[in-house]
Amino acid sequence: MEMKLLMFSIILLRKTLKQISAVSLAILTSKTSFFPDFLIRFEEQFAQFCGTDYALSFCNGTSAIEAALFALGVGPGDEVIVPSLTFHASIDPICNVGAQPIFADVDRQNLTICPKDIEDKISEKTKAIIVVHIFGIPANMKAIQEIASANEVDIIEDASHAHGAMAEGKMCGSLGRIGVFSLQGAKAVAAGEGGMSVTQNKKDFLAMSLWGHFGRHGTEFSEINCQDFKHTGLGFKRRMAPLGALLAQADLDEVHKVNKIMNQTAKRLDQALTGVKGLLRPQLPTGSQQGGFFGGYAFSVNGVASDVIARLRSLGIHAKAYPFARHHQLAIYNDLDYRQRLVANRNKVSNTKVEKMPRVDVVLPNTEALESSLVLIPRRYLITLSNAEIKKIAVAIEQTLAHH
Question: What's the burial of 77, exposed, middle or buried (CB within 10 Å: 0-12/13-18/19+)?
Fold first, then answer.
């Protein structure tokens, strides 16, 4: 235990000193805007990290998803399949480009989007699938790739929770047509605020630059028949703040080491909880490894999450419950006309209520069950937990579940 904390303390000190010196130098040399050399190097190293040819930085992960949808030509009349078990930033960009989110359930054994439900939800309007590697848990990419290929549908991987996670022996983010990452301040690779997209396809890379940058790749826009925009792009300014790239660079240099420590603790937790009746730990696909661990160590407990969380908190472990809204039943996602009317009426002084169209609620039983079943042990404990504390956690959970 002491060795693990010592290793992490050394990593943290090394990272912090690197950030302080790099940011100070950038300020002293007035490299705080546009595209300084260190920002370009960060993008190149992020691409290498993911095993892709191209990486492009953004101001946040939401913008990276919107840029990816634009590159794939997603727009009004199109459908994009997405899990409801995700932060809403995986969903909002679909509506923002005028497309309709189609919600798929998750696999109860894995917590990521269910391949069978993707098959059931695909239609001739489906343009893309957004796969979310939730809590750093890799999705079943082999099955999803087969479905996407058979239906000629593109995959966008949202790996915002999963920096350094692996699926099919490759980095999450590199297995779809485009991968996107949030670099928000709580993520494993953190710019304060920032995002990244990665791809093997140069035309997709240039299209994303056209959408969110200007004055950068304009001389190459003729390759995507957009040379008239070479000076202006599309007018959106979604680039990353360069100082954030320096913060994220220090994290990127250390993320594999931190993931290794967290996976070791997660493995010990898995071993301690093996055989506990009523507890289900997410099963990783063959050839996969968890990474990033945003949200923490996840498991489900047959509808009694609140009791387990209360017991863990009595031990000083600040466990958390299911953190997301029931997105698939919100009118702002299921009724785009209603969403647009809300936006259009935002500044009008009126007592007239904006009416929703009557519709049948979307039902995702596995996702909905997690509202009372999911337990998250925050990621910081994957650094600090001792073997004795892990044993106490396992005993406390087993005793709590034995009473139900």
Answer: exposed
